[in-house]
Amino acid sequence: MRSIKPFSLNLITFALLGTCGSAMAANFGIQNANTANIKTERYECKRCVEPQGYTGSVGVSAGMLDADDNHANNQFGTGNDGAVVGVNSDLAYQQSGYKAKVQAHQLGMDNGFVTMEAGKSGHYKFDVDFQTITTNQGSNAATNLWQNNGMLTPSEQTRTLDLALQRQRSGIGFEYDFSEVLGLGLSSYARYDREDKTGHRSASLTSPRPTNFAEAVDETTDKFSAGVVLDGANWVSELSYNGSRYDNNMGDLSLPYAYDVYSATPDNQAHQVSLSGQYRLASTVLSGRVVTGRMIQDQDLIQMSGNPIQNWDGQVDTLSSNLAASTRVSSRLRLGASYDYNKRDNRSSVFDFAQYEFNSMSGAFKQNTPMDIERQTFKTNASYRIASGYRLQAGYDYKQVERSYGEREETRDNEFWSKLNIRAIDKLTLDFGVSYGERGGSDYQANELTSDETESLMRKYNLADRKRSELNASANYAPAEWLTFDLRTYYANDDYNATELGLTQAKDYGYDINANAQLSTSLSVYAFAGQQWIDSNQSGDQASMWQTEINDEFINLGLGATYSGLMDGRLILGTDYLFANSSSNTGVNGFNTDSANVYGYGSYYSYNHSVSLYGQYLLSPQMAVKLAYQYERYFDTDSAAVTPDSIPGLITLGDLNHNYNAHQLMLTFSYKLK
């Protein structure tokens, strides 16, 4: 059967604000102030006047790229080896309330975009956009299977191609405000987006031996959203619709000796209707939202012996709601609470399937079981100002999830958290946070649908009992106007105390440091550093007991400077350096009656050096030319990537590890209108 593709649906999220006034004994409104003798021209804000006509800049970039591997395009975003040309702009127009804006970046290159907006303030707005995105997984992928009209044709000669995906995104939107026409706060919006994805990606099948091949991609996703917003003096509401449709233009794949050996991702669609609102009453704010949706997948299935289904009329109905309240009890204390409810009702068809025992039919029948999920979340919090510059926050979060026909039918999460914010120390701000949570629930493997299929002691980490402790702290220090420091550190520990087989413990900790200095009016520098460690332990049973320890480490370093004091300020020089390193190592300890054995899985390791140098020269107050050079050194090694002949009986796409140097030289000319 086909696998269900995750539905693509962008949900509109918004923050709703209301206002209200209070009765006063006397009217001290500013409209009643006596301004007859004030010479207002002395206090006129020159910068507050919005410029009329055209403003902004336009430019064109041209350059050369020299790279040993197309993976470098992920960093440079310009294209393959050779010359590249792109258009840049940041233009705006304003006249008598009418506004228009055009922004573009590297338009014409493999990764570029353009957006255009036009409208009249407080009345309507129209916008269109276009974007190209190219991602490269690897160059020179080796394959002896070629895809042609749904047929994977073996070839004695190994050929190479690039594993790359090209996306073209376009959209159009419109907003209209009826407030002035109808005399009430009513506005509307509508938007349509489309994405076309083409290229090749890695895929695998077994027929009869494991085979990796380059799958051709040609798919389209359409999204549509529309809504109306109605607001009053202290309330606001919105009714909206969101929909998406995914179409796969590639069909199932066959081999010359076996048909339909690889199932294509099925078409699907999703729809949602949402009603939300907010009301403000004195110092209390109430908000709510109700969303109902439906996801549909109805397409012919690959036919096989014993399968009575011609097509899968899959349907999942969703319902979610939210209620939230926040109130200011006093000048020091504020309380808040929220309740969320989500239900996923799988209404797909149910069929009878004949059951087999080894190679003979047992005569029994069993039905497929649509799985439903129901979630309820309750949160409460309090914020108390201890003294000027000191604020303490605390809260309690509870989540209950019920799953039908799952390994664990019910899980319950309880979490307590607290935060302390300090703003009373001169030039220093401090934030501290701590939380503790536990997850429990019903008996694991509680129903017969799963208990016979999985090792009875095995626990999935997202369903298993867990105790989680977390600490975090951050600080911002500005000892002088020209110097600032930022520091953040965190530590989290997950203890799966009831797991015998599976993930038993995981730790996640690290830090980030940033420094910025304006050494003079012309020279500014910055630097940052960050590290993260993720350590996890896993227990298993395969003939004998074994334990696995996985250590992941990430490092990010960077520094840069900008100097603008040359040639009477006409010449600006800058440089940036970035370094990133990541590694993952897995060690396995095996135990038996004779001795202890230690094994090691293959590791993953990668690093990246990136250096950029640029100089910008102002030819005139309106014209500038910029010359930029960028260098990247990239290396990675993954033991899972092997050559085609490394493992007998396994067909691979070759060694897709990367080890290259890349250079880019770019010249940009820009013209400023005002």
UniProtKB/TrEMBL annotation:
It comes from the Bacteria. Keywords: Signal. Residues 1-25 form the signal peptide. It comes from Shewanella colwelliana (Alteromonas colwelliana). Pfam families: MtrB_PioB (PF11854). The gene is dmsF_2. This is Membrane protein.
